[in-house]
Design brief:
The chain has 2 domains: 178 residues, Sandwich (Immunoglobulin-like); 161 residues, no CATH class. The two termini are 45 Å apart. The protein is mainly beta. The chain has a 6-stranded antiparallel sheet, with helices on one face. Strands 12, 13, 14, 15 and 18 form a 5-stranded antiparallel sheet that branches. It is built from 6 helices and 24 strands.
Amino acid sequence: MRTTICASISLALSGLSAAQAQIQTSVHEFKDWAMACDNRRHCEAIAYQSEESGSAPVTMWLSRDAGPHARVHIQFDVDEIHEDTQSLTLHLGPRQQLKGISPRIDLSPADTAKLLAYVLEGEEIVVTEGGSGNSSRKSWQLSLAGSKAALLKMDDLQGRVGTPGALVRRGTQLPTKAESSVLPALAAPRVKAAALPKTSAADQALLQPILDAVTPRECWEDLPDDRGPEQSITRVSATEVLVMRECGRGAYQGGSGIWLAKSKPPYTPKRLRLPLPGGESDDYVMSANLEAGTGRLSSFGKGRGIGDCGSSFDWVWNGRSFDLLQAWVSPMCRGFAGGGFGLQVWTAQPAP
């Protein structure tokens, strides 16, 4: 069993001691599977085809909330499917099939139970288009290598090992723990978005003077003005604006810096650092998109190529800075555009 920690998340909950508030969550890889839990103890796992199988990309997503008696949700997706194909068939070994499976739709509780029982003993799940009558239908091979380790890790992080609801080591296999002993869900932090005033034509005229006032100038050294960097300005209060400028560009994505500045001279622009899971921060936003009306800032960074792994973040403007709203990561992709399904590693609750 090989475990790779891809991201480490820390959550500080208001009203708790520092020791109680420090909750470590990681993304773990186990052969062809990966799993993670977010700051609420909500856990998710993803699986793909093995690299040696030669199969076209296929992925399965499994999620489970924290707390006793929590249901397991499972969805499948494939790289491409014929327009006239409405469903998939899952072949669980030579004798058992689950038919009528819609891509990116939860399996029924009955199908979920059958699938989970097979996951713990099988080697792969063969996925085919439509029913079993068409011999020319496309097929995919989803690997189950690493499934036991990934689901056991999920059980462990949710406090389920030895309980009747455990996925791997249930209470019938160990000294039984009551289902009520399962760790409860943790409350998500609440973030409140500030209402933004409308950005006017007069504000647009401030963009260049404010950018000229920015120091230091590393952003311009990395991406000079003659390369046409993307830039924008957004009014956030009666006296302040946000300016954003592209500071770096690759073949398929760019990264930007964001500054908070006064809307009258001296502008005194200050580069913002955006919060990340684990208490860290960054001043570089990949493929940034700021919605002027809502103050919601989105970022998606691709790992190696157009269809490869990446991570995404959403923040909201609270009137003074950005608060992290949610974060996702695709730690392995196996050729599936964007990873197919991401693993949620941070969740906040928008406040009204």
